Recover the amino acids of this structure.
């Protein structure tokens, strides 16, 4: 492999030298720049500008490695040392330079959708969940089934992955993405505050409300509902509600349970006043900041907030309890997936990258560094995982975690439906709107979207 | 050697060219025109590639639909826009925002300019202090104000609370007024400079004559300053309406268009449609409609403004 790379580099250098010699050829006799030549140059520039614009930022289109840049879109909080080691080895093995372009999710989506429109796509993409099926439906994601058929048994896919982590990346019977992180939200509580009040970590909604009221005093709020509509999903799931029922084509069913779940959250803020109002900010670390500052006793969040809590208050004595029970015990399954855009120039290379990043050894190393959770069943049995007090509770929560937005992508309107759910959530939790009124507005907007 | 160009008298230059008659150009004039076009070529290419081509492309895309924007929709996207309550809401919110920022820019910009036009100590520092926010990116300004105004973690409520005053949650209760205020905080320095330039162009003789006639300061301001600032006011209002209708960062950074859809600015709505819903066809149609609205507003303002222009 290295010999081939060296040979290609030498060949490329010779080619460049030849090109340079050609361009350095002296001009023919005559004036340095006639008007005609100047017009020719201007015309050339005119043609080159749009071409350059079209080509800018385009990843190399070679196949099978052999130099160039391998472009990966990555979440800005996920550049762990364990991945850096994998990237270094990958670069050495394939003679490429890996460029991890890091974004917040919203910016990543904007960039990626623009790339799909222009046709200049990266080699591999990390996505935050739900996008793979949407992009599979629109033809923008590459089916990995060919690779799974070849390599699946070797890497333990799908048997070693938790079932929802496979199902959520499958469209029309074909796998389009490999789950990289697999997370859920649980109850984080301040041990000291609960012990002082003589309260056990709550397990049901009623217990949670009672504990929050008891712990709510002065500058300390009983709980802080996190910003961001996805933090409302566990409440819905605990009442048996999913966003979309593909069988009936109806949204937020059973409706009475959906209204009850949203009303319960609203009342925590507006009636019982045990949580400050959520905000519309992009910063979803607000609840973790409250928790780290000991300004709240309980929050519902995932392992991604652990580094923030530990950095802000290394001495904080906190515990992690299982998800609450409404009509049933449930929590939201989240996490990130790696997929290859359909127009990626080197899919074989991209697949090799995905295999390395999702290897058990890499997953375990990433967990040790970041407390991040992983989708492999064998990962949950690793000694280093079971001995980690921040991670072990999640290994118990992941088996009952589930997806809230299942099948929404089949409508082709996942983004618009998420927008109107956001409006519903904010109108009730921030503005304190009544459930009847807010759900009626949601239904009107949904009817308008789905008819289009 | 080329023959010298025929000299033209100033009176001939000021004569309007007769319509329908094409005068034959001399060879040197044609050569000069070619040279001029040659030098204009980079600008033409730049505007063609980065301005007119995208507009043409958006017009084309507005007739398409589907996630891959490959199905012909005719004018369906345009007709949908008029029936879409979310688009109507976004337009209404944007009009409120543009009206607030435009009126605010004129009142505050003119007021501060009049204030600073006096010979005061430290007026340069005052001008610079007011201009700095304008030089700062909306991303920085937006995040700063977002953090200041946060109901729970913001510094403003901490100060109000320490002073025993009631706390605010304007981002939740008055989101449009809040982003109007932040925008004015950011842009007032610039409009003040524009009005200041206008004020300094008004000859003192008018004020002296008014004083002789016994006009007080308010009468001088109303009868001399305001009318003679009409061209500046027109320019400021046209620019403020255009930037107000095109505003995006305020919703994107500060309010995310919420709560609910309370501050869903039109361009932010278009962005959400394009990049979250991936409906580029509909988003393009809304963009074209916004362009038409901006052109209509601009023409209307110019028409009204020119009628009100006065000269003493």
């Amino acid at each position: 492999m290295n010999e081939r790379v060296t040979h290609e580099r030498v060949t490329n250098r010779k080619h460049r030298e030849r090109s340079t010699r050609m361009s350095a050829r002296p001009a023919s006799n005559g004036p340095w720049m006639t008007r005609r030549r100047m017009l020719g140059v201007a015309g050339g520039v005119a043609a080159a500008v749009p071409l350059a614009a079209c080509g800018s930022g385009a990843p190399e289109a070679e196949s099978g490695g052999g130099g160039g840049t391998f472009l990966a879109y990555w979440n800005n909080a996920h550049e762990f040392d364990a991945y850096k080691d994998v990237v270094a080895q990958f670069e050495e093995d394939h003679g490429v330079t890996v460029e991890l372009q890091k974004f917040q999710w919203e910016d990543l989506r904007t960039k990626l959708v623009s790339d799909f429109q222009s046709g200049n796509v990266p080699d591999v993409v990390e996505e935050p969940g739900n996008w793979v099926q949407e992009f599979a439906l629109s033809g923008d994601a590459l089916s990995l089934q060919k690779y799974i058929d070849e390599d699946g048994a070797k890497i333990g896919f799908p048997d070693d992955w938790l079932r929802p982590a496979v199902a959520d990346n499958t469209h029309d019977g074909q796998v389009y993405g490999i789950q990289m992180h697999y997370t859920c939200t649980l109850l984080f509580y301040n041990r000291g505050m609960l012990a002082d009040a003589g309260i056990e970590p709550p397990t049901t909604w009623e217990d949670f409300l009672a504990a929050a009221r008891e712990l709510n005093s002065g500058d300390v709020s009983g709980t802080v509902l996190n910003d961001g509509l996805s933090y409302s999903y566990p409440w819905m799931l605990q009442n048996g509600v999913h966003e979309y029922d593909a069988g009936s084509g109806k949204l937020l069913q059973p409706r009475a349970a959906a209204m009850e779940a949203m009303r319960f959250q609203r009342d925590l803020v507006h009636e019982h006043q045990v949580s400050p109002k959520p905000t519309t900010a992009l910063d979803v670390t607000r609840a973790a900041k409250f928790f780290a500052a000991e300004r709240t006793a309980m929050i519902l969040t995932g392992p991604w907030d652990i580094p923030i809590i530990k950095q802000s208050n290394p001495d904080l004595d906190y515990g992690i309890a299982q998800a609450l029970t409404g009509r049933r015990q449930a929590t939201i399954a989240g996490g990130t997936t790696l997929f290859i855009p359909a127009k990626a120039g080197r899919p074989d290379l991209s697949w090799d990258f995905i295999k390395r990043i999702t290897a058990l050894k890499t997953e375990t190393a990433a967990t040790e560094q970041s407390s991040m959770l992983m989708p492999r069943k064998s990962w949950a049995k690793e000694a280093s995982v079971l001995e980690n007090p921040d991670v072990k509770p999640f290994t118990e929560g992941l088996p009952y975690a589930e997806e809230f937005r299942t099948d929404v992508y089949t409508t082709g309107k996942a983004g618009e439906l998420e927008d109107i759910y956001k409006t519903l959530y904010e109108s009730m939790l921030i503005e304190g709107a009544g459930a009847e009124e807010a759900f009626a507005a949601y239904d009107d907007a949904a009817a308008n979207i789905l008819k289009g | 050697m080329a023959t010298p160009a025929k000299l033209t008298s100033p009176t001939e230059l000021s004569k309007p060219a007769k319509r329908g008659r094409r005068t034959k150009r001399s060879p040197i004039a044609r050569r000069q025109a070619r040279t001029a076009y040659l030098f204009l070529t980079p600008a033409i290419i730049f505007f063609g590639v980065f301005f007119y081509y995208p507009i043409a492309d958006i017009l084309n895309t507005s007739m398409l639909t589907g996630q891959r924007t490959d199905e012909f929709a005719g004018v369906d996207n345009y007709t949908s826009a008029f029936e879409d309550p979310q688009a109507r809401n976004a337009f209404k919110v944007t009009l409120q925002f543009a009206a607030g920022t435009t009126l605010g820019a004129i009142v505050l910009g003119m007021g501060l300019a009049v204030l600073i036009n006096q010979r005061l100590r430290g007026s340069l520092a005052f001008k610079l202090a007011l201009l700095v926010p304008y030089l700062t990116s909306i991303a920085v300004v937006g995040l700063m104000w977002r953090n200041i105004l946060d109901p729970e973690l913001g510094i403003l409520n901490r100060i109000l609370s320490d002073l025993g005053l009631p706390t605010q949650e304007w981002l939740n209760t008055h989101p449009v007024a809040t982003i109007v205020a932040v925008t004015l905080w950011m842009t007032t320095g610039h409009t003040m400079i524009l009005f200041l330039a206008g004020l300094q162009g008004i000859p003192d003789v008018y004020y002296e004559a008014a004083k002789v006639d016994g006009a007080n300061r308010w009468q001088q301001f109303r009868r001399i300053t305001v009318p003679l600032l009409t061209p500046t006011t027109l320019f400021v209002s046209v620019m403020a309406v255009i930037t107000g209708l095109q505003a995006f960062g305020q919703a994107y950074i500060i309010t995310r268009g919420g709560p609910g859809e309370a501050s869903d600015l039109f361009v932010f709505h278009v962005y959400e449609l394009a990049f979250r819903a991936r409906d580029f066809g509909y988003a393009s149609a809304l963009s074209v409609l916004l362009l038409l609205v901006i052109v209509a507003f601009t023409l209307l303002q110019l028409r009204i403004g020119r009628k009100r222009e006065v000269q003493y």
User: Anything to note?
Assistant: The longest strand of chain B covers residues 64-65. Chain B has one domain: 84-307. Chain B touches chain A at residues 34, 38, 41-42, 45-46, 49-50, 53, 67-69, 80, 84-86, 146, 150-153, 169, 171-172, 175, 253, 255-262, 271-280 (CB under 8 Å). The beta strands of chain B are 64-65, 71-72.
